[in-house]
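Chain A, query sequence.
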Amino acid sequence: MPIIHYNSKTTSEALADKVGVTYGQFDTIADEAEKKAKENYDAYEADLVNFARLGYLYIGTIVAIAIFLVVFLLLHVHNYVGVKLTIFLGLFVFAILSSLWVKVPKPEGIELLRNDFPKLFSMLDKICLKLKTQADVVLLTDDYNAAVTQIPQAGFFGGTTNYLILGFPYMMAKSDKEFVATIAHEFGHLSSNHSKNSDWIYNLHKRWDNLLQNLDEKNILFKPFFAWYIPRFSAKSLVMNRKHELEADQFSIDIAGADARARSLVSAELKGHAYSNTWNDVFKNARFSPEAPSDVYDRLRVNLNTTPTHELRKWLNEALEDEGSKSDTHPPLKERLVFANKLEEYQNISDEDLHALVAPLDEGQSSSEIYLGDKLSELISTLNQSWYHGYKQSWEEKHTYFKEVETALQELKDKEQNGELNLKELKAKANLLEELDEIDDAIAVRHLILEKEPFHPVSNFLIGVYLVEKKIESVNNVDASQFLMRSYRHNLIVADSAHIVTTQHFIQQNREVEMSLVEDARKELEIAMKERATVKDTDEFLEHDLSDEEKEAFVAWLTKVEQIKSLYIVRKIVSHFPESKHYIIGLNVHGTPSEELFELGQVIHEHSAFIDYTRSIVIFDTWLHKLEKKIKAVPNCLIFKRKGKEIQVG
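Chain A, predicted structure.
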């Protein structure tokens, strides 16, 4: 899995590159399946069923051969060698069957029992009766989510237990109708109203994923085949996955109504962002208190309606403009609203109705209050304690970090009293002020940065956003849109957000001429992002231009990650927005399991955040020999290499 992306993917899709299926090939397989499904869905489904059977055929063939050999030896070879071979093959068959005995961990949470929550189970029973399914176990978690998952009861070939997972924050955010719409959608996936083949394939998709996760990396009989097979099965079945989502939406509409389903989808999107911001606000308190709060879920009942209108518009527009990708298992929000015949309503939603989507519900109106009843206080107390013990250490670390930020900021302020800060020090001061949420002071420093570096993208972007939020027309005859558009060509990390804020700013001011300019920039931006989305051995690379301090930052953080054997950095030559550099971070790693590579990529991504430009993370393996060779041929690309316990710095 050489190229790390941070969108949500199944294990099979995550392994696509590693087993010789590039993202382009994956998309081609998915495209062909989609085309066939549009021409003749029954033929597509039949092909998918046959491909699904191939997995079983491979397993059955290997097991059958092994058993045949054991029986043959028992019947015809009775000497010492035959006995040893029989024992060896018997153990081999046992190892095969053991490897196929998929042990999927059960989801964790607080189990909700029928006798304690009669109203909740009464609602669930009505939905399950209509959809001809059932909830075997209901769990309450601390996630902002609601989901149904099936866990095998007896390995890969056994039956399943249906788990309904209810995130308490999600229940707090949802009205009764929205919550019912969500639950109906989730159970729609398990409904026997689906066709027999599609229901089987839908569940088989997850089982193949589980199998690949649980097979030992050294399993030479099954791992290579399923590493080849599962990404292809995943690509072929994505059409059905998306169809299932819309079918489940239809079940939701039938039970709760189109209004409730559409509102549930859109409010979940907006409240999800607002909920994340709320958690950020909670952790900001770590600056002032070394002790984590023991009543955090009580505090979450905050007024989310304080989110600025332009921020809500940005979130909604991003969601509605997202066309999805070939690897998505879910249709984009726009398609789902079209399906519910509600797209136009949300495209033209008023500011008042937009804020109503994220406004806190009146007392007694949230699904948590309605369905958890008199057990609500007890559950909140349990969740509070669980959160406190789970985050106590990280909270203390956050408090220590804030104190270090305050100390570093004070040192810069002391230095400033004795003379002007240089450009690097000004950037550091602005960052520190923003870390402490002292935005007005940070913006003042950002203006000083622009005096020294007029096209500094982050400063232009943040000043532009600040002016829009504060409804300030201009500063020194430069208006908000000019600040925002300066960031377009110089940093793609901020360009997408800058486009959305600029667009909304022009809409509010009825500046149609400028809107066309923004749209032109948007089109080029999309091409530029696509150009940076892949790394191939046909690309051309330049020597990186990182400072010694930036290289030292990589060494300081990432030499602690023992999986990394060596790390290299180059720049990719790009045609679109060349002013915005794109870095390639290449790694050789020790035998890290495939499912851990995304986590490793995330660690590297976070610890390279001081680079103000886009970057791809490439993990070298045998499939990328040419790319690895080409990157390592670039002068001064080595940042560090691990030799035993010694670190060799490039």
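The two ends are 25 Å apart (CA to CA). The first strand starts at residue 3 and ends at 4.
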